[in-house]
Design the sequence.
């Protein structure tokens, strides 16, 4: 699970999950605005920090567009082929997931030195602001995801998943809706474990940044960004694995039951996403277009 720590890390999240947006290319073009705006929820940078960050972000975005985006387009093509050939199997979904993780890892490794530099340069007041923002974030997540009764959490989780899937597939059948409900029920108290794990990660980040002048600070941030699962509790690790398996099974079953209209809609959306990215000026320039 990735957490909002710095906007440089948001570069990782947004660039790899931007497909959730209805106009992926438009969102990608505006990352230079979206990322600093997101960081503002956690740290109020001074003018010098903003200037430094703007230039470093520009470098990272250019690197991502010219070296990583072509691979992302290839990945989308493989997803498209899975749908076209009715090969949305557990093995293929696992393969695409592994490829996405490798891409995320590459971005994380690249932005980590910049994240270290940014975090090390924060003032005591900014570190305090970040800790307060994390505390607010934790209160909001507990209130939304943990405080409600478990049966309400299950219902809300199913509704969120249904809404996401309808955006890609259109109207769902009764059988598909029932599968989503069964999936959500199987996850039980996943919300509690997820929020607790998120809180633990934020607390460790806050502790590391409070001690940012230590010699091992770069290594601590590297672990927090690049090796997050090493910090998971045994309980959360097991729950995470169960949730991944359950979600893969859900996707495979839904696609097996999908009708022609749903597959046509999904293929159209994937193709639109590929076209959006293909038309990006930075990518065309890199390809000599």
Sequence:
């Amino acid at each position: 699970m990735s957490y909002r720590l710095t906007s440089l890390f948001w570069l990782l999240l947004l660039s790899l999950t931007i497909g959730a947006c209805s106009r992926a290319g438009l969102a990608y073009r505006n990352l230079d605005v979206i990322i600093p705006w997101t960081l503002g929820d956690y740290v109020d940078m001074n003018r010098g920090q903003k200037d430094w960050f703007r230039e470093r972000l520009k470098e990272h975005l250019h690197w991502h567009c010219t070296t990583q985006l072509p691979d992302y387009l290839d990945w989308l093509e493989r997803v498209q082929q899975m749908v076209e050939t009715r090969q949305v199997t557990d093995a293929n979904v696992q393969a695409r997931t592994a490829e996405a993780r490798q891409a995320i890892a590459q971005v994380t490794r690249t932005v980590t030195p910049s994240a270290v530099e940014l975090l090390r340069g924060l003032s005591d007041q900014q570190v305090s602001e970040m800790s307060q923002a994390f505390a607010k974030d934790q209160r909001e997540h507990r209130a939304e995801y943990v405080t409600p009764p478990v049966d309400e959490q299950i219902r809300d989780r199913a509704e969120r998943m249904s809404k996401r899937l309808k955006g890609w597939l259109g109207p769902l059948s009764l059988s598909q809706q029932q599968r989503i409900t069964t999936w959500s029920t199987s996850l039980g108290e996943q919300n509690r474990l997820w929020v607790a794990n998120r809180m633990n990660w934020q607390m460790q980040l806050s502790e590391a940044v409070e001690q940012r002048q230590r010699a091992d600070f770069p290594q601590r941030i590297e672990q927090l960004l690049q090796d997050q699962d090493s910090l998971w509790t045994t309980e959360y690790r097991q729950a995470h694995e169960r949730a991944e398996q359950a979600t893969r099974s859900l996707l495979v079953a839904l696609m097996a039951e999908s009708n022609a209209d749903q597959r046509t809609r999904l293929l159209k959306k994937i193709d639109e996403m590929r076209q959006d990215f293909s038309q990006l000026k930075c990518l065309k320039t890199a390809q000599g277009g």
The chain has one domain: 7-286. DSSP finds 13 helices and no strands in the chain. Residues 7-286 form one domain.
